[in-house]
Amino acid sequence: MRVLLHTCCAPCASHCILVLQRLGYDVTLFFSNANIAPQDEYGKRLDAVRLLAERLGLPLLVDATDHADWLEKAAKGFEREKEKGVRCERCFRYSLSRTCDAMRAHGFDRFTTSLSVSPHKHTPTLFTIGRDLDADRFLALNFKKEKGFKHSLRLAEEFGLYRQNYCGCEFSVRD
Hints:
Blueprint (H helix, E strand, L loop, with lengths): L1 E5 L3 H13 L3 E6 L7 H18 L3 E3 L4 H9 L10 H20 L4 E4 L9 H12 L13 H12 L16
Parallel strand pairs: 1-2, 1-4, 2-3
């Protein structure tokens, strides 16, 4: 079965890829992150995902990015929300919706997201959104299990992957 993995960043995706492969899936990475700002940060993260895809011999699809569209559809009116608030939920829906659309357009069997490996992301919210989009084809996998986040940190170091220090949007930058 072919699965499209929404790839928030290379370090998080590293562990998810190995879990999916162990489960018998043929993995394609999908970099869809219109939330990432500024543009040079977007470039660093995309370069790291390209490096990971190359090292693991995986195909990579890169979504067209439109930060202005993301601002309008996901962040507008929620700029002052704290992390894990409504803005984040809207952002997850934006990215997972694009992933679901790409899954259908490219003939994949399933889709899922690397976001669930992060201890900073609310997995039940991600699962609700994924199921809302396509309950039959969303893989609700909690990649935090089996110390997934710690494993992703080790893999990032092993592969020499760039690791960011904030989620992605300009509203999540830590001082």
